[in-house]
């Protein structure tokens, strides 16, 4: 059976594909650089320096193009996310440190990985640049051609070498179908861009309006703030109240959507790779079990080492089964973390918008500006790495718990030792119950006999004032020696709970697993907080709305003054002073938000401040 399974997985071992994606990655830099040059030539430079003779012929061409706005992009979010998903295989290759274009000493491996990351980023740069370019017709043609090239290369590799050494049949398809789906989506997206840009280019449709600084959901958020608070809806489902409630006035930026898509695909690939490694280890363990079986048959199971060998064989069998079973709960935990992180991002951003920083540790409420800018670049990559390593750690811990569960509950029943198992389990539960009962009894005695009565019947608990001091000191003295022994168990329980929570939450970058005062040592949480503050300062709907009003009003005044006889277009209707309009808007705002009345500056404070300023100083005397 082992030989048959090994043969099934070793199909097409010597398969030679005409196109190798790893080699094609190096050659793809040539068309990638050409596309970047074309888009850079079309991009106009907004701020030109004094031109010298060298750059005189360039004019204002060859502006800097960017793949996407990592802070304030809310359009084409899923297109950018799918473009990130197309890079998943190469990201996993970098994660495994298998992509090393140069042979260098061990101390220089970090530079090699940096060069490899830059090469992968440059190879996939045209996907993002063509999606974000303002020249939709040219960028759609270039993006479609480049995506089609990668799509054809992937199809050829799957078709020519569909099988592999690890999973056997359709191994290549199992590894590359997510990237294939993402490339197919990008082909459709670029085709859609071309069909929309062509009529505009031919003059059949009007030119699209200039993109506004203020997004629609941000404007709706500001309108909600300025309107009367609505009563909470009572008809919400269980999913909306307990899991997630969609908010039309909030949208996740493209960076978060791209991180979600790429992390999901990388997690899938990581699970597949882990399963392949498990198959290899399982084959080795099967061979070892065959050797044990032959040795036991040779000894006729009568030797002194026979029971030990049988236990080793049973341990191997249990471990293999538990490892396979725990793949699903470990992967489900990490997938739930991905969506929970999005929910926490929305909750934290809304609290920052409201000026609430209490959910952050004290030393994180004013992070460094430079560290925050670096955090916005680190977050996505670190989040993916945390999810992958977190899955592996969670899987190992769940497997250990599963093995313990098998040896404590399942195997005794299979070995017809159920009564002994129940007896030991009952003794353990009884012991823990007695210890917990004594702890609860101490609290009850302290509250019943050693605290003074309530000052008022409406008080929830008794005041922290000692009563019956002599009895209390005797109570404290005799329990001192018992609590020393109890403290040993409490210390072990603290260690066990800390290990379980730390390993269970290791993939959660949105919360620290360090003790209070040591949060700075958690670099992942530092990246999360820095990323939150960058988004808070650059995408706050109130701030963006204010900037939008300033820009549009300045543009309207400038356009009005450049229009000839602009003063003749003034309305002949009733005119109101700016002060009256301001007071009317202030009244409307205070009516809709009564809590702001208490925050207003009173006239008495204003007059007292003026009188203080008018008093003569010593220099006047």
TrEMBL record:
Record bears the keyword Thylakoid: no
Membrane topology: Multi-pass membrane protein
TM helices/strands, residue ranges: 24-42, 54-74, 107-125, 137-159, 174-195, 260-281, 322-345, 386-407, 427-451, 479-507
Keywords: Cell membrane, Membrane, Receptor, Transmembrane, Transmembrane helix, Transport
Biased composition annotated in UniProt, kind: Polar residues: 610-621
Broad class of where this protein is predominantly found: membrane
UniProt-annotated stretches for the region Disordered: 602-621
A family per Pfam: RBP_receptor
InterPro entries: STRA6-like (IPR026612)
Signal peptide annotation: none
Protein name: Stimulated by retinoic acid gene 6 protein-like
Source organism of this protein record: Mesocricetus auratus (Golden hamster)
Name of the gene this protein is made from: LOC101831781
